[in-house]
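Predicting holo structure, guanosine-5'-diphosphate bound.
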Amino acid sequence: MPVIAILGAQWGDEGKGKVVDQLSEGARMVIRFSGGDNAGHTVINPYGEFKLHIVPSGIFYPNITCIIGNGVVINPARLINEIDNLISNKIDVSHLFISDRAHLVMPYHTLLDQLEEKSKAERAIGTTLRGIGPAFTDKTARLGIRVSDLIDKRGFFNRLCSIVNYKNEILTKIYGADPLSVEDIYHQYIEYAERLAPYIKHTPLIIQNSLTNDELIILEGAQGALLDPDFGTYPYATSSSPLAGGACQGSGISPRCIDGILGVFKAYCTRVGGGPFPTELNDDVGNLIREKAHEFGTTTGRPRRCGWFDTVAARFSHHINGFTGMVITRLDVFDILPQIKVCIGYKLDGEIIDYFPANTTELIKCQPVYEELDGWQSDTTGIREFEKLPLAAKKYIAKLEELIGCPTNIVCVGPRREQTIEVKPVLDV
Ligand code: GDP
Ligand code: IMO
Ligand code: MG
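Done. Tokens:
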């Protein structure tokens, strides 16, 4: 120990990559525990600007062991691409390890993600089309192929034959698509296995050593709580758990070992893809936020939908994660606004409610109830001490803390590593 989980607390893209990169300085290990290359984590540090999809954001520190955990689904082609990109930028990746229990994203997963989305037409989820849903479906259906399956070539070929035959039935009979070739996939994946072999490890032992030595371990979340398949805006959700519980499951670390759970929130809300979003702004303010903050998807480049901070959703996120503290990123985006609204409740069928409804139709009907606060209209990007923030900015943060019921550990005022204000030490819980 100590172990800290850094989790997305909204609909993803809260700035987890930046926070993990910044907090990794004192860490010994960073573990990604869920999702796959649907994630896009932006890190801007002295080595440049990087968009990480599968590789943990601690990779820039050569002394940190970076683990792609059992809970991640890996598209090997994309991982190799990411590794090559890091190497070409002179980043040492010899300290990267891949769990042999992680599942693989296969060519039929990406194909089926596209075909399923297309067939849903206006009901499409708006997935990243990276095959993530189909890969997790196969994991649960016990039809998945794991990293460790690649070691035994004959066993892998036999398993692949039966799975691809089954997938080809679906591809040809349901979607009228062309069948895939087992041989082509087999040879391609054997090539990937050879390339990735140096990184593949039995990770529980490595993690256990770190736990025993009392080293700081960071669990790096992907996506955000409101995309969780159980508690998020289902079916407009992802397919693995971005929650504190998912962090244990996807890394093999016991809940008893977790010391800190940081919820990363933006100072406002965004979401990419379909699904309910009560505080969405389809107006000039929404456009202003999108343009000023460059709110375009890291993975797909899609424009992100923007809206005011929603404390009903945030409180729910806190309850299902048990945050020990919050990180509030992108506070600087509000530097230009004269007034800021915060959603303090929902109005549903004429009644004020303070919970986050499970039902999509109900959530779409919810009208946000706002409280309006003064903006600060001054530049915060160079501030490094909490006391030096404008009074209105401190009042905004205090309002969020009061409504969510959670203290703030860190405030971010820019995308670069150093544009970070420590409000309270992360492990001071
Ligand atoms: P992640 O998926 O949670 O890692 O977040 P993304 O990288 O997808 O999106 C967050 C974006 O916000 C990235 O472009 C970051 O560089 C940027 N960012 C992070 N923190 C701040 C901040 O405090 N201020 C500003 N202006 N940008 C930030
Ligand atoms: P990071 O880690 C934002 C969204 C997709 C879609 C839904 C399902 O960068 O915060 P999927 O491809 O997972 O089946 O898509 O989930 N989504 C994300 N949105 N940030 C992410 O990751 C996301 N990962 C998935 O846009 O709405
Ligand atoms: Mg992202």
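DSSP finds twelve helices and 20 strands in the chain.
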